[in-house]
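Quality-control log, excerpt.
Job 1 of 2 completed; input and output follow.
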Amino acid sequence: MYRIDAAELTPFIQALFRAHGCSENNALAMARVCIEADLRGHAIQGVDHIYSIIRDLGNGVLDGKAIPGIVSSTGATLLADGGGCPGYVGGLFAVDRLTQAARQMGTAVLALRGAGDLFMLGYYAERLARAGLIGIVMTNTWPARVHPTGGIDPVLGTNPLAIGIPTGDAPVVYDAATSASAIGHVRQAGYYGEAIAAGLAIDAHGRPTTSADKALGGALAPMAGHKGFGLGLCIGLLSGAMIGGELGAQLDIVAQSGDPRHGVRSHLFIAIDPGAFGDADAARRRASAFLAQIKAGRKMPGVDEIRLPGERSARARRDNLSRGVPILAEVWHRLCRFAREANVDIPLIKTEKS
């Protein structure tokens, strides 16, 4: 593991994206959001995934200079076209426009089509919550990684759901895949030949496996069995078929071609203003009072603290801002290879491996 100061890492990642065809503004936004995932302890959704963004920029699936725009609106509903933009760019655009609409209408829904992976959904939900809104974000991820209950073939993405709720203090931020494990944890275990926990995946023949490589060639289990499958399926339908996006075999074609004639990928954002139902400040106070009750409750043996959704990430961010962004050595070496190929200057790492 390396630790790299965020102030040094950000311009390096920005330059890497610029070298692969992104505009200056897009590259900076992408670098900042990407690094936020690593700061918060969600490395599988941050710098580790730059390889897939660079791949898609190179093969034309993504357009690094694209600027998202609103195609149509009823006031409370907005349809946005990303024009093939990277997901970070589309996600920020969606949050900004949705915030404006929800404050005017009380609630608003935005369908984002034609944008790449959003990665850490909790980041966008938290931005909405810090704006005083309830934020809900969902997406159908690609490629399909999750098998249905009773089935072997992967048919669903890990299809995450994020909910951000404003309180009188830090917002509550729930962010989770609907698979038994995020695929990134399996991928990173594969970097070093580490085993994964039992019950997370099956191999290509439907047999349970603890091998990361066999899991990547097979399928992830749905979270909580049939409950996770049902939730992941509904998220896929809501953030895909219902708002004009593709699913299943057609999504494979779309995600690999970047040709809108085959269809588009899509993501769903929802914002609700608590003030539409009464006193927003009072709502936040009620939330904080209830959270305090939970925190003050009895703890099981060996437990020092009852943690709320989003607390671990917030603490990790504070710690990593002071100590440096933690980057796996394998991931850093891969970034350096990309940089050398693109003639991008590589910053010197002043800290030792930790």
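Job 2 of 2 completed; input and output follow.
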Amino acid sequence: MSAHQPVAAPLANDDPWALDRAHVLHPWTHFGSFEREGALVMDRGEGARLWDGAGREYLDAVGGMWCTNIGLGRAEMAQAIADQAMKLGYANHFVDVTNAPAARLAGAIAERAPVGLSRVHFTTGGSTAVDTAVRMAAFYHTVRGNPGKTGIVARENSYHGSTYLCQSVGKRDGDRIDEFRYQTEGIWHLASPNPYRRPEGMTEAQFCDSLVAEFAALIESVGADRIGAFIAEPIQASGGIIIPPEGYFPRMAALCRQHDILIIADEVVTAWGRLGTWFAMEDMFGVRPDMITSAKGLTSGYVPLGALIFSDEIWATMAEGGQRWFTTGFTYSGHPVACAAGLKNIEILEREGLLAQAARVGAYFQERLASLSDLPLVGDVRGRGLMACVENVADKGTKAPLPDGARESKRISDACEAMGLLVRPIGHLNVMSPPLIITEAEVDFITERLGRAIRQVTDDLTREGWRLG
């Protein structure tokens, strides 16, 4: 719906919609629409469903923010959180103090991570995990006698978080605004490995060749002695569910190994079951990274927690001689309540076989969504597992997008919302990442409502005079 204001008149001192509108700055606030409409107030959730303050029900095909993997309303999760809060609600995790949940969760993570990655640094979320990984890469190369080898190579259309450093490393068009400044020195961006947007007349194999050649040329021009790490999401999530061409990651990894460049797999979205595996970079793309950043599905969003997982070799290098300090961390690193939630989350994922369910239902999800490809407004439907994207275009042949003023993706999400479905509009995309507990029947609901919304918005655009090829 276009406006979120409840029907009832706001209560000056108690109404959440009015209080939010008067006092809250949301992430990625668009000031004009927020001032006009306020926010949609969510009241409760159960499984894959949400209810707003007016009692309207929604199927959450976004999974919160890529994170509600085990679903909402889990009594055993609430109990685990409450029990730990009563026993030990907080403990300092700096230098040489720990707590049992943090130690046990680190062990559980190491047991499931790729072989050789058994060290864990706890953070507050994905951004702080990425921030730490970038700094760890510089630390590692410096102690090996290469203090200039601190640069980072990322990709266009990537998202790696919202701290100053992370937004500088990531590079989505919608995140780069004139009002903010970004670090540019020592950060380089390669082309996005998006097969749908490859140059006309180029095969996917040729496209892959060009991407690898671009990386090789960058290393040659910049100098391998200045590049410390290559950071990549196995599947670019907020950038539009971009799955690279066959062979891309093994070939990029070969260049990294040849030139002593660390590989950071940003798995904040893809880890913890979303693609049917604990982690994606090795299991799905055949590359064992040096570091993995994770968050989101680690606690299924019940409490904030992130984890940087890194190799034993990095640890040994940093720790050699025993005289160095690793001077980064956070007040809430290793928070006992958050780590207790992480342990319970892993227990539920395993006990209920949710990784296997995500793989099975994810395949059905991709199959059903592919049926939307024939709609006039739809240029591409892509995804893997429980990650999916519908890209809207003005012309299927040229793949030209509509002008930004058409706002077709936001209008589609609004139409879905009015029909009890939540999808996420990003530019000319509508993306989805439902909880791992999603059923085939709910996938059918998503497909039917999303298709209906796309047809409705297509009709509206046509009546308004927008040209659709």
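Post-run check on job 2. DSSP finds 15 helices and 15 strands in the chain.
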